[in-house]
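Backbones bend. Our protein:
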Amino acid sequence: MSVPNDQGRSTGTPATTAARVTSDGKRIFQMGPPVVIWWCWVALIAVSLGDLVIQGHAFVSLKFAFGALAVTGLVYACTLWPRVIADDRGIEVRNPFRRFVIPWPAVRGIFLADSVEVQCARSMPRKDKTIYSWALSSPRRTRARAQLRAWQWDQGKRNRPAGYNQLPDQARNLVKMTTAEIMARELAALSDDARFKSVVAAVDLDSTAPDQASEPKADTAPAAAGPGSQPQDQERLVQPEPGQPIQVLSATWAWPPLLAIVLPAIGCVVTTLVK
């Protein structure tokens, strides 16, 4: 289903955010449970490797250490690495082994199904592509439970959170949503805001173009044309074809998690062969 936007017109980024805002203004969207799983795994591996260091550096211990590090890389690829990063330029979707950079002009729509999905444009003649965010998963059953809980609150069949009645309507709506739905709506608001700014910039450019064209330019007067001479070429902006975005999706391999898996795996294979 598509993600509706409560704003009639976006004129700025949302005042509140479900993301972590960095010092340079980027918004990082990431669910909490995967981060907790990652740090619990790091603590477990640190204790295990510390015990191996105390016991000694036998080949069996080294093989176990490299194997544990390879599994750690896999856990990293599935928990801490996946995220969605939004800034003034566009959206970056990090999946376990792929990284997608989507400029705002290439965003066709943001949807919410089993995860937050971004429909984006690609270079012609390829069709639009839908990017599924690993980090912002939203199972339908979870959303159904949230909707049922909200309905029970409204009908008085379930105890409401403390201070629920004192919240404004917008805050009540947020309480009823899942975290992924809140993030999807915020990304949709950012996309609408970027689209609105691009339209305003285009209107301003069109409104100033006739004035610039009407101004006399003494230095650009064409020379007298002789017989058979061609008129002097003038520099002009080349506009894209209608419906064709200026920027499109770009995709690359996610090298940090891939190297975190492959390098320890190579070490595990080498220690196995040496033995």
Q: What stands out?
A: Strands lie at 20-21, 27-29, 83-86, 90-94, 98-103, 107-112, 115-120, 129-137, 250-253. The radius of gyration is 27 Å. The helical segments are 32-55, 59-78, 140-155, 169-176, 179-214, 255-274.
